[in-house]
Each structure stands twice: as C-alpha cells, then as structure tokens.
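Handoff note, outgoing to incoming analyst
You'll be picking up this chain. Sequence as last confirmed:
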Amino acid sequence: MTLFSPRLTRRAVVGAAAATLALPSVALAQAPARIALVGPLAPDPVAFQQALAQFIGSATPQAEGLQLDIPVLADNPSAVPIKAQVTLPITDQDWCEELMVLAELNPIPLACRIRFTADTGTAEAAVRIRLSQSQAVHVLARMKSGKVLAGKQTITVAASGCGM
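Most recent structure output, in case you need it:
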C-alpha cells in the first residue's frame, strides 16, 4: 500500500477547471458596480445647480430651437465632441447672446461658455470637453429676447478623462 497515489482522472480535471473558472465570477459578483469618485475628482452638484439657475434665471427653458450633435458613447473622454446650433432665426432684434455647456458630474461643471453678437449671423459652436465619468451634458442658449433654449444628452465614457 502506498501513501500517495497520484491518479489523475477526467472527473478530477473537469472539477478543478470548473472551480478555477467559477472563482473570478464570484469575485466580480461581489465587487461594487461603480466606484465613487472622491477628493478633487468628486462631482460638485451644488456648483452645477448654481450655474444652471444663474443662466436660466426666471425663464422657462424650451427644447425647440437648439440642435445638438453629441455622441452617446465617448471612446476618448479627454476630448468629447460637442456641437450645438441655434436653429431659431437670427435677426437684429433677437439673436443668441450666450451658449453654455455644463457637464453634470464633472468636478467643475462649467465646460464652456461662448458669447455671440447680432453681427455673428449664426449661433453655432463645436468644442471638445473632458468628462470624468458617464454623465449628462447640458447645453443652454440664451436669446436676446430672454428666451432660454436647453438640451441634454447622456454620454457613456469608456474610461475616466479627468485626473489623467
């Protein structure tokens, strides 16, 4: 009789393989779905709400008149293309005075602010912004008449762009 009998069976190999493959799925199931950003990369919802309220004032935002071209998936979060165009007629009496881009969950929500004059002829802007995580991007435009146009698009980022 021997103390050690190294007998390898198919059942032992399949069982060991199944146990090995099951371990990563158990670990992934227990991992948190999303890691919250902290410190200087943490979102600032107060600054976002303040910037939104300051721009809108007492006006009621409307979606008609603002055309957005924003991707749903950003493969490079360091340079997400944002294009906005005011489609309302630009006249000497009413034109787009200002266009603002806000990233809701960025540490500094104000991504871009552009001012226009009546001589501009069109209110259109194409910029690239950095996003810290998947979030909604808001674009607001204020007309000379006091009308505020608003649009938003939720963007999923492939990796974090802030703090790189």
